[in-house]
Known about the structure:
Helices cover about 65% and strands about 0% of the residues. By secondary structure, it is mainly α.
Amino acid sequence: MKEIRELNKLLKCYKTYSIGSLIHSLKFDQKHILDTLDGEDILFPHHIVSMSISYAQLAFLKIENNKADIDALNNLNLALMYAEVGRELQLKDFKIKPLDKMNVHELKKYFSEFSALLFWAILLNNKNLAKKLARQVEFCLQQKFLSDFPLSYDYFSLWAYYKWINEEFTLESKIDGKFKDLINNWSFESVFLEPLLIDIANLHCEELIDNDLRKYPPKFIRPPFTLLPLEIHVINKLRALDKLNEISLNHPLMNTHSAKIKDFEVISDDLLETIQINFL
Length: 280
């Protein structure tokens, strides 16, 4: 299947990246941000997102070569943290200029990352962060230019959030396909739900493909979201809270070393904290 070929192609790339070039990219973006903080330049959120990507690539380089250590795990945590801040700044720009064509174009490409980050916040057990991200997902879904996009993944992230905080979710009718089937059969034994989760893993991998044949932008072409099946980890977390058994599945996405990582944390980072203080 083409989605699995795309996954395997990404894995091969992640395993062979040059550490030197990744560190060079990271330092380039750090310098721009530091210059901004010194008043010598204008802050562009894409530099923060670019740092997220570099941190993720550094993490995957070690993790997928089965050499995960504390540095690799810290880089993965930083990748998610920088992605959250960078996208929040981009959304802030969009809210200031919602009619700007470039802002609209960019939001179409990254809005689903808020949904992925919402899954991450649930795994963190960080209710304040999750609440903020849920509001961001809801804001994006209210944009009329996204109304014909495939949005079940995004509405499902909200369903998971409201289930996690034990509050009513009023937009379940917006969810269709495999995510709807999962909700309808939530209490079934895991052996019966495994085929559904395999389909959901396939959907994740389909969102790795970026070509001219796509009608809509792919959701997961930027690391760290490429290899992290956050939605599947959250499904199993919520099932555990309901005293239901874990759904294990044999799928290439779940067989990566990165997919074995289910525990994340927010770690200290002086530069990121300074960005948040000055710009958020």
